[in-house]
What does this fold into?
Amino acid sequence: MTIKEMTIRIRVPTILRSYTGGAAEVSVDEAGGTLRDVLAGLDAAYPGVAGRILDSEGKLRRFVNVYVGSEDVRFAQGLDTPIPPGAEVSVIPAVAGGAGQEGGERPQ
It folds into this structure.
């Protein structure tokens, strides 16, 4: 297995890039572990970033979505989701709201 295959790529949303020096994608060497391991590695490399993804109880924050490949970890094993070598983890802040019907009115 090559180094690239063992590295986990993490896509970082704009709002968290101040923790990663502006990088939109970073890598950690936590292949074969769980999402919990990957986030610990991410926080070791970029201190403070995990605190924006996890709450004070160590659970995923309510308005943060995390995907391994195209799978939402909330529908997998959460923080215990296995991360295969070479995987891509995406951290995506949830978006709320939106426009109502045409003209900006909301349906009654």
Remarks:
- Helices lie at 3-6, 35-45, 50-53.
- The beta strands are 8-11, 25-28, 64-68, 71-72, 88-93.
